[in-house]
Design brief:
The structure holds 2 protein chains of 2 kinds. By secondary structure, chain A is an all-beta fold. Chain A contains no helices and 11 strands. Chain A has strands at about 5, 10-15, 20-25, 30-35, 45-50, 50-55, 60-65, 70-75, 85-90, 95-100, 100-105. In chain A, a hairpin with a 4-residue loop joins β7 (about 60-65) and β8. Chain A starts with a strand and ends with a strand. Chain B is mainly β. Chain B contains no helices and 11 strands. The chains are: A mainly beta, B mainly beta. The interface of A and B includes residues 88, 91 and 97 of A.
């Protein structure tokens, strides 16, 4: 069983919709990362958080440490938001454990 | 350069060949990570360096995989006697501190195809 579970696995939405991607993890963390991966492989770090909420532009990330759950929200989604969004937990030996990713497609 | 640089971007190898993949992290970054990403999957941890010290190599799938970072900057991931199951994208990431305390910066990856 993967220590980091994401849902949904695939998501197709219309431009302008509010998007939520969920991440659950089974062991304690010291930090949780949200990453964006575009076709071709490049990965960009969106957020690193250990508590509460962070906001950057149209992206919002929240985390509930007690429930071991994090969410990534995209407001006013746009086709350029189409990508794979990956949740990863940091902890232990300082490496990251990744979820399998959520494939997001925003249609115009 | 300004970002993490990996080379080659694409490598095709015949089964049994040795390959070497290079990662040039952001200057001054202490931590360097290697990940393996199979098609349609999330990245899987391979190994972690803090400066020149390899602190964790628990993710290396077999003794055919070897990584080094001799001067605490550039790192090389070597795969000996490649097998078809080694086909994947190999991602390198660096951080000024550690994955638990600092933002990670990823390279574009090296896509290895073993025929």
């Amino acid at each position: 069983k993967n220590e980091v579970e994401q849902s949904p696995q695939n998501l197709t939405a219309q431009e302008g919709e509010f998007i939520t991607i969920n991440c659950s993890y089974s062991v304690g963390i010291s930090a949780l990362h949200w990453l964006q991966q575009h076709p071709g492989g490049g990965i960009v770090s969106l957020f690193m958080l250990s508590s509460g909420k962070k906001k950057h532009g149209r992206l919002i990330a929240t985390i509930n440490i007690q429930e071991k759950h994090s969410s990534l929200h995209i407001t006013a989604s746009h086709p350029r938001d189409s990508a794979v969004y990956i949740c990863a937990r940091g902890g232990g030996a300082d490496g990251l454990t990744f979820g399998k990713g959520t494939h997001l497609i925003i249609q115009p | 350069g300004a970002g993490v640089s990996q080379s080659p971007r694409y490598k095709v190898a015949k089964r049994g060949q040795d390959v070497a993949l290079r990662c040039d992290p952001i200057s001054g970054h202490v931590s360097l990570f290697w990940y393996q990403q199979a098609l349609g999957q999330g990245p899987e941890f391979l190994t972690y360096f803090q400066n020149e010290a390899q602190l964790d190599k628990s993710g290396l799938p077999s003794d055919r995989f070897f990584a080094e970072r001799p001067e605490g900057s550039v790192s090389t991931l070597k795969i000996q006697r490649t097998q078809q199951e080694d086909s994947a994208v190999y991602l390198c990431a660096s951080s000024f501190s550690g994955a638990n305390t600092g933002e990670l910066f990823f390279g574009e990856g090296s896509r290895l195809t073993v025929l």
